[in-house]
Amino acid sequence: MSKAAKPAKNGGARRRWIKWLFLGPLLVFIAVQLYFFLMVCWYAQFNPSSTNMMDDQLSLMREKKPTAVLQHQWVPYERISDNLKRAVIASEDANFSEHDGVDWEALQKAYERNNRRHKVVGGGSTITQQLAKNLFLTGSRSYLRKGQEMIIAFMLETVMSKQRILEIYLNVAEFGRGIFGAEAAARYYYRSTAANLGVAQAAKLAVMLPNPRYYDRNRSSSYLARRTTLIVNRMSSADLP
What we know:
Strand order of the largest sheet: 1-3-2
Shape: globular
Strand content: under 5%
Pfam families: Transgly
Helix content: 55-70%
Number of helices: 11
Enzyme class: transferase
Structural class: mainly alpha
Family: Belongs to the glycosyltransferase 51 family.
EC number: 2.4.99.28
Number of strands: 3
Pathway: Cell wall biogenesis; peptidoglycan biosynthesis
Distance between the termini: 74 Å
C-alpha cells in the first residue's frame, strides 16, 4: 500500500514543480508590469526627481569622481520654448501627436535595417518609447528591452496626455554627459534658459539627442550642422500637443 502511494506522491510533487516552473515567471512578469504601471500613474501627477538613465550615468561619473553631480533642473511645460518642442518632434518623432505610443512604420523600417546589418543598430523609437526607456530601462539594445519599452509606452499613452509625456521627456532627456533636461541644456550650451531658446539653438539640441555625449565633444560636426539646418526647415510643420 505504501509502495503504491509513494509514486503517486512523487508524481504530484513533480506536477506542482512543473506548474510553478511556468507559473512563477508569469507571476514575476505581471508583478513587474504592475510596478511600472503604478509608477506611470504616479508620474502622471508628480514630477520624477530622477530616472533610471540618470542614476546609471551618475554612478559611472562617480567611479571617476566621487563628488560628481548631474546638471538637472525641472521646468514646467510653459517654460520650455515652443522652438525646442517643435524641433524635438521634427527630429525624433514627426507623428508624435497621432500615434498610440509606437510608430509601426518606423519600427518596421528599423527592423529591416537591423536585419541588413545583422545587429540592433536602431529601434525606430517614438518620444513615448524614449521616455519609457529613460524612466525605467537601460540603454542596452535588444529585442527583449524593446518589447518592455513598448509595453511601458502603451501605459504612458493610456494614463498621460501627450503634453505631459512631452513635458517629462524634455525634462529628463540627456543632452550631454551629466546634462539632463532642457533647462540644464540651455544653460550649459547657450547660457540661456529653456524658455528663451531660439530656432537654431533648439534645432541643434534636438539633433544631438540620439548621441548627446558624442556631439558635446564634436559640436562643429558637419553632420550636426547639416541636420540642424534640415530640422529648422521642418519645425514649422511639427504639431504640438
